[in-house]
Amino acid sequence: MTTRTLHVQVPATSANLGSGFDAVGIALNYFNEIYFTEDDKEFISVEIEGLGKGEIPETFADNMVGQAMERAAAYNGESLPKGGAVKLVNRIPPGRGMGSSSSAIIGGILIGDALTGSKMSKEDMLSLATEIEGHPDNVAPALLGGLTISIMDGGKTMTNVVPVGDDLSFITVSPDVEVFTEDARAVLPKEIAYKDAVFNVSRVSFLVSSLVTKQYDRLQYGLQDKLHVPYRIGLIPGGESVLKAAEDAGALGATISGSGSTLIAFAVQNEQAIMEAMMNEFKIRGIDSEGHILKCWNEGAQILP
C-alpha cells in the first residue's frame, strides 16, 4: 500500500487573559506536533514523545487526539483508516494552562478532516472544537492564531482575530504544580455583583483596544479582573508574589494563563529579567519552574509539508 504521513503543528495558547474570562485567548510561538502515518495494521497506535509520556493515554480510543480525529471523521460522514500510527511530540506542559488539551483537540480535528476528505471549514472546526472543549477561548487561538475574541451563540462559535506584532513579548513561567481544571472551576463564585460585571466589561474592552492600538502601557489596567483571578491565584503557591515580581521587574502587566498554574507577563523590554524574577519567586518557595519568552503566533495551526 502507499503510505502517507500527515504532520500538524499546533501553537500553545494563553486563555482568559485577566479580564477576558472564557472569551479572550492568544496563540504563542511554542508548539506541539502530531504525526499520522497510515499503515496496513488493523489498529491505530499512539506514541508519545516529550511531556506527558507515561501520563497521557497511549490507547487511541482514550487519547484526546484520537477522540478528536474520530469526531472530525464522523462530522464528515466518513471513517478513519483502519491502521496507522499517531506520534505526539509534546512540548506544551500538560495541566499548566497553556493549551495542551486544545492542541490535542485542534491537531486531531485537522488530521481527522484531512484523512476523510477535507470537508470542514475553519468555522466547522472551531464549532466542533468548542463542543469538545466546552468553551472557545483556548481552541480558537490554537486553530486560528493571533489574539482571539470569541462568543457562543446557539451552538455556533464566532471569533474575531486580531494579529499581534513582535514588538510585544509574553513571558510564561510554569511551576511544577498542576492546577486541575475542575478545581479551578470549583473555586469560582456562583454569582457575582453587578458592579463586578461592569468592572470586567470595561476592563476587557480596554484590554483588547489597548492591544489593537498598541498602547501597551495600559495593559495593566485591562488585565485587572474580578471574575476568576482573585479566586484562582490562591491555587498557585506564591502566585500573587510572582505576579508582583514580574511587574517590579518591568512587566507591563501579568496574570494567570488559562486556569493556571502558568503565569504570564507582558513586556516590551527586560524580558529575561522579568522571567528570572518570576522563576526566583517560585524557587524561594522550593518550587521548580520553566520559563519561556514568547511572541504571538499569528498563523494558527498548520498542516506542514
UniProtKB/TrEMBL annotation:
Q: Which residues bind ATP?
A: P93, P94, G95, R96, G97, M98, G99, S100, S101, S102, S103
**Where do the GHMP kinase N-terminal domain residues begin and end?**
64-146
Q: Which InterPro entries match?
A: GHMP_kinase_C_dom, GHMP_kinase_C_sf, GHMP_kinase_N_dom, GHMP_knse_ATP-bd_CS, Homoserine_kinase, Ribosomal_Su5_D2-typ_SF, Ribsml_uS5_D2-typ_fold_subgr
Q: What is its main location?
A: cytoplasm
A single GO BP annotation from the record? threonine biosynthetic process
Enzyme class, first EC level, given as a word: transferase
Q: Mention one GO molecular function.
A: homoserine kinase activity
Pfam families to which the protein is assigned, alphabetical: GHMP_kinases_C, GHMP_kinases_N
Q: Which UniProt keywords apply?
A: Amino-acid biosynthesis, ATP-binding, Cytoplasm, Kinase, Nucleotide-binding, Threonine biosynthesis, Transferase
Keyword Transit peptide included in the entry's annotation: no
Query: Where in the numbering of this chain does the GHMP kinase C-terminal domain appear?
Result: 230-274
Recorded superkingdom: Bacteria
The answer on whether this UniProt entry bears the keyword Transcription reads no
A cellular component term from Gene Ontology for this protein is: cytoplasm
Q: What does this protein do?
A: Catalyzes the ATP-dependent phosphorylation of L-homoserine to L-homoserine phosphate.
| UniProt family annotation | Belongs to the GHMP kinase family. Homoserine kinase subfamily.
For this entry, the protein name equals: Homoserine kinase
What is the species of this protein?
A: Megasphaera stantonii
